[in-house]
Amino acid sequence: MTDNYLVKTVAGTCVGFSFILVGNAITQSFMTVPALLIDFPKPGAPGHADRARLLGRQWPLCWTVGNQFFRPISTLGFIGYAYAGYAVYKDYKEHVGTRGDWRMFAVAAILHLTTIVHSAVNMQPLNDKLEALAGRTSDKELGNAEAIARKWASWNRLRLVTPFIAGSLALFQLAQ
């Protein structure tokens, strides 16, 4: 690993970002969504439409934090890992035999980029569908409320795995 303290600081901060993202994904997938779906009535049952609309009103409170806090740290993690990878690569080329594998940081950056793209392409449409349950949707969509929320939680697991692997690779690299 490079002896550059700036690179170590940036990479270490990104490791922290990665594990914060992991904690958030665990909380959302295994606590928040299940709590919102406790005793969710079956489609067509009395109270189902009201409960689905309540889910739609509650959902913006869940994903607003992700958009305002976790999106920037995921982006900063990507930029930081890319910087660390570049700096270690540059150091390696200038000082042949230098310890450190820049590819670990490059993979970590790609994993963070994957998380960002997945969030935009796959998760945002589900967020929109869940928020629409509050009042701008048909009865058919209300019937799919629980399935949409469960799909969201399932897809959110990717946002648990990719930062975990990224943070683990970078931490391994920093420990060398």
UniProtKB/TrEMBL annotation:
Keywords: Membrane, Transmembrane, Transmembrane helix
Chain ranges passing through the membrane: 5-26, 69-89, 101-121
Coiled coil: none
Main location per the UniProt record: membrane
Localization terms from the record: Membrane
Keyword Transmembrane found: yes
InterPro entries (UniProt xref): Anthrone_oxy
Nucleus found in the keyword field: no
Highest taxon in the source lineage: Eukaryota
UniProt GO cellular component terms: membrane
Membrane topology classification: Multi-pass membrane protein
Family: Belongs to the anthrone oxygenase family.
PANTHER family in the record: ANTHRONE OXYGENASE ENCC, DUF1772-DOMAIN-CONTAINING PROTEIN
Name listed for the protein in its UniProt record: DUF1772-domain-containing protein
Organism annotation: Pseudopithomyces chartarum
